[in-house]
Amino acid sequence: MTLSGRLDSVTSSKLGEELSKVFEEGSIDLVFDFEALDYISSAGLRVLLTAQKKMNALATTMKVINANENVKEVFEVTGFAGILTIE
């Protein structure tokens, strides 16, 4: 799943809806490509945390790839670097 621009309170709700559809389809592995993602807010982090919890419950994997330094810094400061698989 490729994300671009901003993952904030507006766009995170849309992502949450899309992820709900994905989870309804069954157990799959998820890869988030953040190469074009410029910003992530606490609302975006919340959606990722919820997705990670669901993936853990389904015994499937989720990872984030190509995150820029700003997004990686947010993951580090918030502790999400220890929760998410970031490559």
From TrEMBL:
Residue ranges of domain STAS in the record: 1-87
Molecular function in Gene Ontology = anti-sigma factor antagonist activity
Q: Which residues form the signal peptide?
A: none
One protein family per Pfam: STAS
NCBIfam families named in the record: ant_ant_sig
Q: What family does this chain come from, according to its entry?
A: Belongs to the anti-sigma-factor antagonist family.
Task: List, alphabetically, the PANTHER family matched.
Answer: ANTI-SIGMA FACTOR ANTAGONIST TM_1081-RELATED-RELATED
What is the recorded name of this protein? Anti-sigma factor antagonist
Q: Which organism is it from?
A: Formimonas warabiya
Its ancestry begins with: Bacteria, Bacillati, Bacillota, Clostridia, Eubacteriales
